[in-house]
Design goal:
- By secondary structure, the protein is α/β, with parallel strands linked by helices.
- Helices cover 46% and strands 14% of the residues.
- The chain is built from ten helices and five strands.
Length: 229
């Protein structure tokens, strides 16, 4: 099969020290045994800004925003990482995300940015809204860059919303309004991660107290039902 044109722009990164270090980190970092109790886990709530919805055809990550939550639901750390794209970014995406070509050109590659995110989120459960987009995008990028397989523990807060507040639209903005969560500038990865973290706390409280679901495995079973409904 003929390689896509962007492969040849990626090729110089392969076999470099940062690339080999990331491969080694992904292969050697053991998965910590996480508690099955939802209230005894740490969470990394994250969001991506991308050039499109389809990494399979070459769309890329422009920024990663993430916040780390401790077992008491407090935000204890945050990160915002720009990613240098391989391909030119459309003007409408730059306008939507309020990013500039200059800032992206000066940013590190996906290799360096993803390594930072892995270290930040180590020994935690990922949360995204919706996870089926953000986690799928990360996994597609990992595959594109020929890195070791990436299969993180994750929770989809959009599916949680369908279970916890079925009468409310499960999109982020209506949910923020429903829970009176302060709205920050949208389409900024860190801002969206902060707001999603506040939403996740509200949803987790309802899931536990009103639905009697206190375990990660139990929650995943219920979310599968929401996904197929």
């Amino acid at each position: 099969m003929e390689k896509p044109i962007y492969y040849f722009k990626m090729k110089p990164y392969f076999q470099t020290e940062p690339y080999l270090n990331l491969c080694e980190y992904m292969e050697k970092t053991p998965d910590k045994e996480l508690s099955n109790n939802l209230n005894q886990r740490e969470y990394t709530v994250f969001d991506l800004e991308t050039t499109g919805f389809l990494p399979e055809i070459g769309h890329e990550i422009l920024s990663i925003g993430a916040v780390r939550m401790d077992v008491k639901g407090r935000i204890i750390d945050e990160m915002h990482q720009l990613i240098k794209p391989i391909r030119p970014v459309p003007k409408d995406i730059l306008s939507l995300t309020n990013l500039s070509r200059e800032s992206l050109a000066a940013a590190p590659s996906f290799i360096d940015g993803f390594h930072r995110f892995l270290a930040f989120s180590e020994h935690s459960t990922l949360v995204a809204h919706p996870a089926h987009f953000d986690v799928r995008f990360l996994r597609a990028m990992v595959k594109r860059w020929k890195l070791p397989e990436y299969s993180p523990a994750c929770i989809d807060s959009q599916l949680m919303a369908k279970l916890a507040v079925p009468h409310v639209s499960h999109r982020l903005d209506p949910l923020l309004s429903h829970f009176n969560i302060h709205s920050l500038e949208r389409h900024h990865a860190l801002n969206d991660a902060v707001m999603t973290a506040e939403l996740f706390k509200e949803l987790l409280k309802i899931i536990c107290e009103e639905h009697g679901i206190y375990t990660y495995s139990g929650l995943q079973q219920e979310l599968k039902k929401q996904k197929s409904s």
